[in-house]
Amino acid sequence: MQLSVSGLRHYGLIFVAFGVTGGLTMLFSRLVLNMLLGLDGSLISGPWSYRLVYLLLIPPVYSATLLTVGTLIGKRAFFQRRVMRLWGWALPASFRR
Predict the structure, then answer these.
(1) Domain enclosing residue 69, as ranges
(2) pLDDT tens digits for range 18-76
(3) Which member of 17, 23, 49, 50 lies 3.0 to 4.6 Å from 41 by CB, making a disulfide possible if both were Cys?
(4) Other C-beta atoms within 10 Å of 79: how many?
(5) Higher-confidence position of 56 and 90
(6) Given this model, what pLDDT does residue 86 score?
(7) Beta strands in the chain (DSSP E)
(8) Are 71 and 63 in contact, with CB atoms under 8 Å apart?
(9) 43 phi and psi, to 5 degrees?
């Protein structure tokens, strides 16, 4: 199976978008925890309030960041499908369309 240049470009952009999104999600989550909520700590060393809020904060921040990065690189439809697949279980059927 041989990929065309446009296929390689597509997968390259997808790969970069997921990498950038992961890093930005960690940065944004830590900023929210430290600056907005005043919680200091880490996932490993605690405190438990930090751990709980961090784990609850990651999925929505990741989804929003993924959509933003995907839109900026011109692949909004691709990443919108991924986010809808991730959150489909929690959304009403009328919203999923």
Answers:
(1) 5-76
(2) 999 999 999 999 999 999 988 888 888 878 988 999 999 999 999 999 999 999 999 99
(3) 50
(4) 21
(5) 56
(6) 86
(7) none
(8) no
(9) -65, -30
Structure-token match 């944004």, residue found: 28
Number of domains composing the chain? 1
Token pair for 92: 């009403």
Chain-centre distance for alpha carbon 22? 6
Structural tokens at position 60? 């929505």
Phi and psi at 46, nearest 5°, equal 85, -170
Label residues 4-17 b or e (16+ Cβ within 10 Å = b): eeeeeeeeebbeeb
Q: How far apart are CA 90 and CA 50, in angstroms?
A: 24
d(CA 32, CA 39): 9
In a domain, 97, yes or no: no
